[in-house]
TrEMBL record:
<keyword id="KW-0004">4Fe-4S</keyword>
<feature type="transmembrane region" description="Helical">
    <location>
        <begin position="173"/>
        <end position="194"/>
    </location>
</feature>
<keyword id="KW-0813">Transport</keyword>
<feature type="domain" description="4Fe-4S ferredoxin-type">
    <location>
        <begin position="404"/>
        <end position="432"/>
    </location>
</feature>
<keyword id="KW-0812">Transmembrane</keyword>
<keyword id="KW-0479">Metal-binding</keyword>
<keyword id="KW-0411">Iron-sulfur</keyword>
<dbReference type="GO" id="GO:0005886">
    <property type="term" value="C:plasma membrane"/>
</dbReference>
<feature type="transmembrane region" description="Helical">
    <location>
        <begin position="289"/>
        <end position="308"/>
    </location>
</feature>
<feature type="transmembrane region" description="Helical">
    <location>
        <begin position="87"/>
        <end position="107"/>
    </location>
</feature>
<protein>
    <submittedName>
        <fullName>4Fe-4S ferredoxin</fullName>
    </submittedName>
</protein>
<keyword id="KW-0408">Iron</keyword>
<dbReference type="GO" id="GO:0046872">
    <property type="term" value="F:metal ion binding"/>
</dbReference>
<dbReference type="GO" id="GO:0051539">
    <property type="term" value="F:4 iron, 4 sulfur cluster binding"/>
</dbReference>
<keyword id="KW-0249">Electron transport</keyword>
<feature type="transmembrane region" description="Helical">
    <location>
        <begin position="323"/>
        <end position="345"/>
    </location>
</feature>
<dbReference type="InterPro" id="IPR017900">
    <property type="entry name" value="4Fe4S_Fe_S_CS"/>
</dbReference>
Length: 453
C-alpha cells in the first residue's frame, strides 16, 4: 500500500487578522438584529452599526492581510481553504447569497402598504438616507443597490491593497468603483430626487435590455428634454460608441472598467476567480448559451418595435409576456440568483461568461474586428500555471503562452490578471494594428500600444 500524502497545514491567521474578522462577524450579527428588531429607533441603530462594523472590519482585514506583506499575486492554499476551495464555508456562503436573491426578487415586493416582506426592517432602516438622496422612502431595490455598491467599494479596497504593485489593476479597480458609486447609485438617486426618470448611464442595451424597448423609449421621451437625451445616450452608446470603443480597446473598456456586474465580479468575486471551469465542455456550454441569449434579446427587441409600429396589433399580449419571461429567466434567475449566488462554487464570472448578452455582443466585436489582443512570449514561459489559475473566464491561458500564440478570444474581458500573475512577463495586453493580429508575438508590430500590468 502506497502512503498517502497529507496536505500541509494551513498557516494560522495573525491576531490582527482574527480581530478584524471578529469585527466583521459582529457587524453581520448587528445586521441580523436589525432584521429582527421591531422598534424603529433600535433597528436603525443596529443597521448603521452593522454597516460601520462590516466596512471597518473588511478594510482593516485587507490592510493587515495584504498591506503588511510584499506586493504580488498570492495564490497560496486557495484550494485548501473551505471558503475558496468549494468546502463547507463556500457552500454556506453560496446558499446565503442565493437565498438572499430569492427573497429579494420574489418575496420582498411592496404590498401597497409599505411592507417589504422578510426584508421589511432592513428596507425601512434606510428610509432616512433614501429621503435625503432620492426624496422618497426606501424600497427593496434601494436596499439592494446600497449593499451592492458597498460590496464593490469595500472589496475594491481589498483588491487595491492586494494588487497595489500593478498600476493597471489599481486604476481598473478604481474605475469600476467610481462608475458603480457615481453612475449606478448616486446619479440615479439624484434623478429621482428631481422627479426625473431613474436611469443608469453605465448600462446599455442589450445588457439593460429594456432601454431600447419601445415602451421605455416612449416613456422617456414623454419626460421632455432629459428623457430624450437618455434615449439618445442609450442608442448611441449601444449602437455606435460600443463598436468604436471595442475596436480600439476590446471588450475590457466595458466589462472590466465600467460594468457593475463586472465590477462586482472583479472585487467581491476576486477570491473565487480560480474556480472557473476551463474544460472544453464548459466552453461548449458557454457558446451555446450566451449567443442564444443574445439572439433572443435581438429578436425580442425587433418584434416589439414591429408590434409598436403596427399599432400594437401584431403580437397582442404575447410581446409583453415574452419580455416579462425574459426578465424573469435571464434578468433575475440567471444574472442574480445564479450569477452572484454561485460565486463560491462556480467562480465570479458565471453570468458574464454564460449569460450576459452584452458580453456576447462585445465578444463578437472583439474577436473579429478589434485591435485588442494579449501577446505571449513562449520562450519565457515556465508553465507555472498562474495565468490559467487566475482567469475567471475559463481560458486556459497557459496553453497559449507555451505556444507563443496571441490570445484572441471572444470571452476574454481584458482584466489583465493573467499578465499580473505571470512571474516572467510573458503576457502583455496590447492594442495594435489588426494586421498580424493572429500571429505570434515575435511578428507583432513594434509600434503596438503596450499596456503593462
Amino acid at each position: 500500500m502506497s502512503p498517502t500524502l497529507a496536505s500541509p497545514p494551513l498557516p494560522s491567521s495573525s491576531p490582527a487578522e482574527k480581530l478584524s474578522l471578529a469585527v466583521v462577524a459582529a457587524g453581520l450579527l448587528a445586521l441580523v438584529l436589525a432584521l429582527t428588531d421591531g422598534e424603529l429607533g433600535r433597528r436603525q441603530t443596529w443597521f448603521y452599526a452593522a454597516l460601520a462594523l462590516v466596512s471597518g472590519g473588511t478594510l482593516a482585514w485587507s490592510w493587515v492581510k495584504y498591506g503588511g506583506h510584499p506586493a504580488g499575486v498570492q495564490q497560496n492554499n486557495l484550494w485548501l481553504r473551505a471558503s475558496t476551495g468549494r468546502g463547507a464555508v463556500a457552500w454556506v456562503t453560496g446558499l446565503v447569497l442565493t437565498g438572499f436573491y430569492v427573497v429579494l426578487y420574489w418575496y420582498s415586493g411592496n404590498d401597497g402598504q409599505g411592507n417589504f416582506g422578510p426584508l421589511n426592517n432592513l428596507v425601512h432602516a434606510l428610509d432616512g438616507f433614501s429621503q435625503w438622496l432620492r426624496a422618497r422612502p426606501a424600497d427593496q431595490w434601494f436596499l439592494y443597490g446600497t449593499f451592492y455598491t458597498l460590496a464593490i467599494l469595500l472589496m475594491g479596497g481589498r483588491a487595491i491593497w492586494k494588487y497595489r504593485h500593478s498600476r493597471y489593476q489599481v486604476v481598473r479597480t478604481a474605475s469600476v468603483m467610481f462608475f458603480q458609486l457615481g453612475f449606478a447609485y448616486i446619479i440615479p438617486g439624484l434623478l429621482q430626487f428631481f422627479q426625473q426618470p431613474e436611469f443608469y448611464f453605465s448600462y446599455f442595451w442589450p445588457l439593460k435590455y429594456d432601454y431600447l424597448f419601445p415602451g421605455t423609449v416612449t416613456s422617456l421621451v414623454q419626460n421632455g428634454g432629459l428623457g430624450v437625451f437618455m434615449v439618445f445616450w442609450g442608442a448611441v452608446m449601444s449602437l455606435v460608441a460600443t463598436p468604436v470603443l471595442t475596436y480600439f480597446f476590446g471588450k475590457r473598456w466595458y466589462c472590466s472598467w465600467v460594468c457593475g456586474c463586472g465590477g462586482l465580479a472583479e472585487t467581491a468575486g476576486d477570491p473565487y476567480r480560480h474556480l472557473s471551469d476551463k474544460s472544453r465542455t464548459a466552453w461548449r456550454w458557454e457558446v451555446r448559451l450566451i449567443y442564444t441569449i443574445l439572439g433572443i434579446i435581438i429578436v425580442l427587441t425587433a418584434l416589439l418595435w414591429v408590434h409598436f409600429a403596427t399599432g400594437n396589433t401584431l403580437l397582442g399580449e404575447a410581446g409583453t409576456v415574452a419580455a416579462q419571461w425574459y426578465g424573469f429567466a435571464i434578468g433575475a434567475v440567471f444574472s442574480g440568483v445564479i450569477g452572484v449566488g454561485f460565486y463560491p462554487l462556480m467562480g465570479s464570472r458565471v453570468w458574464c461568461r454564460f449569460g450576459c448578452p452584452m458580453a456576447a455582443y462585445l465578444g463578437l466585436l472583439q474577436k473579429h474586428f478589434s485591435r485588442f489582443r494579449i501577446s505571449t512570449n513562449g520562450a519565457q514561459c515556465i508553465s507555472c500555471g498562474n495565468c490559467s489559475n487566475v482567469c475567471e473566464m475559463g481560458i486556459d491561458v497557459q496553453q497559449y503562452a507555451q505556444r507563443g500564440e496571441p490570445i484572441i478570444r471572444a470571452s476574454c474581458v481584458g482584466c489583465g490578471m493573467c499578465s499580473t500573475a505571470c512571474p516572467r512577463g510573458v503576457l502583455n495586453l496590447e492594442n495594435g494594428p489588426k494586421e498580424g493580429r493572429y500571429q505570434g508575438s515575435q511578428l507583432i508590430h513594434a509600434d503596438s500600444l503596450r499596456i503593462l500590468s
